[in-house]
Design goal:
The chain has helices at 2-26, 29-45, 56-81, 94-110, 114-125, 130-137, 141-165. With 166 residues, the protein is an all-alpha fold. The longest helix has 26 residues, at 56-81.
Length: 166
């Protein structure tokens, strides 16, 4: 028990040095204080692994370094798990509504027949003139026009149906 008290007192005398070292790693005073606290807690819990006669400061500095590496890894994981703050800027505004509309249109287009998807893709999405779209599809312009009209009608029906189910 006396050995534990002596070790705790030696740790306490090293606190200014530990804090200074933590500040060089963390740069922010609060982060450095948290790092020192965590490291001292680890040192006390694992005090049985400290070998008497070796440098206590080196052992504590190593604990601080490892705690800092753990913190950096955790920060990296958190930044990978959570979306950046900027992605939340448009929540609840016109951007979100436009995104929902875009998703509804994409779903409706995916439900069209192949020939209707082709004319919608070429004329409405890619903006090709009717003549050029007809050449791409190797059909007469009149056929393209009638397919496009039927595709628009089908799209409107699909979108109206989606709106009723929401």
């Amino acid at each position: 028990m006396d050995n534990d008290n002596a070790l705790h007192e030696e740790i306490a005398t090293l606190l200014p040095r530990l804090r200074r070292f933590a500040r060089t790693l963390a740069w922010h005073r609060e982060d450095a204080d948290d790092l020192v606290q965590l490291s001292v807690e680890r040192a006390i819990v694992h005090s049985s692994s400290y070998q008497a006669g070796t440098r206590l400061d080196s052992w504590l500095f190593r604990i601080i370094k490892n705690a800092w590496i753990d913190e950096l890894r955790a920060r990296t994981r958190r930044s990978e798990l959570f979306a950046p703050e900027e992605e939340g800027e448009h929540v609840g505004d016109d951007f979100a509504e436009a995104h929902q509309q875009r998703m509804a249109v994409q779903k409706a287009v995916s439900l069209l027949s192949e020939e209707h998807r082709l004319v919608v893709g070429l004329v409405l999405v890619e903006g090709l003139p009717y003549k050029d779209a007809a050449e791409v599809l190797e059909i007469p312009v009149g056929t393209l026009t009638s397919r496009l009209a039927r595709a628009r009608t089908a799209l409107q029906e699909l979108l109206s149906e989606q709106a009723r189910t929401v």
